[in-house]
Amino acid sequence: MRLILLGPPGAGKGTQASAIVKRYDIPHISTGDIFRENIKKGTELGLKAKSYMDKGLLVPDDLVISIVKNRLLEDDCKKGFLLDGFPRTLSQGEALDEVLKDMGLELTRVINIDVEKEVLIERAIGRRVCKECGATYHIKFSPPKEEDVCDKCGGRLFQRDDDTKETIEKRIQVYTEQTKPLIDYYTKKGLILNIDGSKSIESIFQDIVDSLEA
Ligand code: AP5
Ligand code: MG
Ligand code: ZN
């Protein structure tokens, strides 16, 4: 399976990605996670990316594309992959086509998770992430057993710097202007799988699996 997860900020891409990669035993490639990892380590890439992320803007295409290109060449991607949050612009989509063509590969499906704006804001504002293992929670929709403590590893939970109401609204605007055109791009290629993201986490996952295996 060579999959892309497309959808606005807070739609549930990361949440569904964890379950999808487990089921199909493929690597989860999230460009947002790669940037956050670099910010944590204080790398030059992290420093550059942070200045865009904190404002809710996209990191420049050339930076993102070279990272994904190198990642796809790693051995574990031979069995397939799930891209989460990439591509995010038409030029990233075209660059990905080139890379895959050079590798002699084709995409299997592009999963497009759609959710209305009010729900996105509520999901993002209430999100909490584990500092240690990256597990994602929501204070209302999927709370941890003990407040601010990860069920899986006991790590502390934190709120992402870009999960303020103001930055989320900016991210949604950027998504609408720069990322949404990709829906059309992949629809024309016959690859889009539209998924209603307003349901529960479990029923969305079931819908994705049913459509992929239909
Ligand atoms: P990135 O980390 O990719 O953020 P995003 O796309 O804005 O998406 P999110 O991670 O916020 O949301 P999600 O869809 O993963 O939702 P989640 O599953 O966590 O990117 C961050 C930044 O990095 C960008 O702004 C940009 O600056 C930069 N960047 C990254 N990739 C780039 C690229 N390719 N090009 C340029 N720049 C790039 O769920 C959200 C919450 O809702 C959680 O609390 C969860 O528990 C809850 N939830 C999930 N599903 C449900 C459900 N069905 N019902 C109820 N609650 C739910
Ligand atoms: Mg995410
Ligand atoms: Zn944890």
What does this protein look like?
The chain is an alpha/beta fold. The protein is built from 9 helices and 8 strands. The two termini are 14 Å apart. The mean pLDDT is 96. Bound molecules: BIS(adenosine)-5'-pentaphosphate, magnesium ion and zinc ion. Residues 13-14, 30, 32, 85 line the site of magnesium ion. Residues 13-14, 30, 32, 85 line the site of magnesium ion (MG).
Under the CATH scheme, which class of the domain at 2-115 and 179-213? Alpha Beta
Distance between the termini: 14 Å
Shape: globular
Instruction: Determine the CATH superfamily of the domain at 2-115 and 179-213.
Output: P-loop containing nucleotide triphosphate hydrolases
Bound compounds, each kind once, are: BIS(adenosine)-5'-pentaphosphate, magnesium ion, zinc ion
Number of helices: 9
